[in-house]
Amino acid sequence: MITIYDIAAKAKVSAMTVSRVINDTGRISEATRKRVKKVMREMNYVPNSMARSLVLQKSKILSLLITDITNPFYTTVARGAEDTAKRYGYRLLLGNSDEDYQKEKDYVDMILSTRVDGVLFAPAGDMSADHLQQLQQHRLPFVMLDREVPGIQSDTVLGDSKEGTRQLVQHLIALGHRRIALVGGSQDISTARLRQTGYREALLLGNLPIDEELILSVNYREFRDEALLDRMLELESPPTAIFAANNFLAVGIIASLRSRGLSVPDDISVVCFDDLGIASVLDPFLTVAAQPAYQFGEIGMQLLIERIESGREETRNVILPPEIIVRRSSAPPRTVERYERS
Amino acid sequence: MITIYDIAAKAKVSAMTVSRVINDTGRISEATRKRVKKVMREMNYVPNSMARSLVLQKSKILSLLITDITNPFYTTVARGAEDTAKRYGYRLLLGNSDEDYQKEKDYVDMILSTRVDGVLFAPAGDMSADHLQQLQQHRLPFVMLDREVPGIQSDTVLGDSKEGTRQLVQHLIALGHRRIALVGGSQDISTARLRQTGYREALLLGNLPIDEELILSVNYREFRDEALLDRMLELESPPTAIFAANNFLAVGIIASLRSRGLSVPDDISVVCFDDLGIASVLDPFLTVAAQPAYQFGEIGMQLLIERIESGREETRNVILPPEIIVRRSSAPPRTVERYERS
DNA sequence: CTGAAAGCGCTAACAC
DNA sequence: GTGTTAGCGCTTTCAG
């Protein structure tokens, strides 16, 4: 491995001079600078950023920890984060917690030992508090992304789950739906809670009763609760519409419904939070509350980097509103349809 | 920052002993081991992996460089790579070249200076040879992913572009299509070349003439060549089917066709390489040659790690065959349909 | 404008 | 079983 000493020897200067050339610091005569640069090129020298990090006590590495790298929402977040990190000269260490607290913990340990300069952190849920506190204990700056965690104070970039859900459910009500189900996420995730709250508020505002039998809490990542869905569909008065708390749930539910011979939206409407990426271009089908995912990543990174570099102390909390996009998956319920036609 | 010396002092041992406890090396009495561990816990000590890397001359960091983090194919590759890296105790540095040689170069420099142990590398194209050679010069192990680069010898994990394309085009021919267009990628990308070759072979095998007017080479990442498409559609004898060289192109083309009032597959069939992730669950529409993306990432990582850890010298080349999935976007051409019905 | 010495946090090699 | 010494590649500080 070639070091600055090799360069120094060949260029007949000291290691310090080489260092100064690399970092453009201090005064150096144009002659030696040129000579050193030439030698570096000839020897294919690449500075060792690990060694640099060790003495500088900063790594120029940031970590992005997300919960599902396969979900188009987080994929786009990652793109925003990556672009922005690169623009500011940071490298990006990627972590995927899979909504799993244990994996998340492993990553936090790894992040700490890597001495990254900061973390853009999408928590798996409320129990991530332990992990976040660990970061705080080590004075490692972080920005919480997409979800907040009770008891943890930090910069945040969040959507507006309650408001988006309210609008989506009100859209269903306006279409004439009276029996609207909620398939939400685990209640230890802030967005899942807020989406349930938004749902309840919308029903209240619409003077509709809240039926606990129409409320499900399942795993965010994948819908496989066929039995629960069955039970709901076999109720005396089954739902005519379903609000799914995220895109993956919606897709799973629609697949389930279809396998039962039910059609969306003819038999039942489905709407959800978060858009579907390329799927929506091919087939604009799902009515959604689309969130500006790229900006989640971009703004999150900017807050993080700014905090690292400026040492800002006050926390900043950004809320990015969703956009309701009405498409074919939501339609009036059958009964109303018949009624209006008659 | 807490170091092993702090731990050593408090536990009344030498730094070396602490190091041995951390790494589980050498013989240590159970008593001191316990004492040291206790102190480490009390002081919230986390080893500094940078310092460790510096002396060990290996970082336990691998780099994943892909060309489009937004494409479901690479997203799934990333998931396979990430899972596997984690399983073997490696961290993952993420890079996104955007099919851009300059960005790719920036990442290669960054990778080199980070002293990662290896790279899983999806090259932007043939001109990535420079970058790959740079890696070789520095003896940095890498595995080429998805695309090969002429003149570069290394482990590879590739699909079978020619064969997949041949099958897809033969499927179109079997449906009765005689005028089949190719919308392919830039010819400095190995998969784009092979897909064009497969296309030509299929036509030859089907005794169909090759019409250069039906062959387009555009940017892989996004279809925005409306004028070229227009020209093709206005030919005296326009295509009744289009083979798109990847998923994003297919989606772009379908959107374009629809904006012209053309329906897929009623007016024109479209098939492509690579599936669409969640989009295919929601709406199984596109006929595709689906590649096992997760395995691209998983096997690529395994080859890389094995090469790093075993020092294997011979190169290994894995080919993962695609699976043809016939769906609604391909149907017999109108004329034939009429003919068969009469 | 350039250099020498010291140290970032850790571990390999060698004592005892 | 445990400790000492030296050094990984770099930059800071202080001299000159």
Report a brief summary of the structure.
The structure is a homodimer of 342-residue chains. With 342 residues, chain A is an alpha/beta fold. Chain A has helices spanning 4-11, 15-23, 30-42, 49-56, 72-87, 101-114, 129-137, 161-175, 190-205, 226-233, 247-259, 278-282, 293-310, 334-341; strands at residues 61-66, 91-96, 118-121, 142-145, 155-159, 180-185, 215-218, 241-244, 269-273, 287-290, 317-320, 323-325.
The helix/strand class of chain A is: alpha/beta
- Largest beta sheet of chain A, briefly? 6 strands, parallel
Greatest interface and its participating residue counts: A-B, 56 and 56 residues
Report the count of strand segments of chain A: 12
Helix count of chain A equals: 14
Strands side by side in the biggest sheet of chain A: 2-1-3-4-5-11
- State the share of residues found in helices of chain A, binned by percent: 40-55%
> Strand content of the residues of chain A, in percent?
15-25%
What is the subunit organization of this protein?
A: homodimer
Q: What are the low-pLDDT stretches of chain A, counting only 5+ consecutive residues below 50?
A: 336-342
The backbone outline of chain A, from C-alpha atoms, is elongated
Mean pLDDT of chain A: 95
- CA radius of gyration of chain A: 26 Å
Order of helices and strands of chain A: HHHHEHEHEHEEHEHEHEHEHEHEEH
* CA(first)-CA(last) distance of chain A: 84 Å
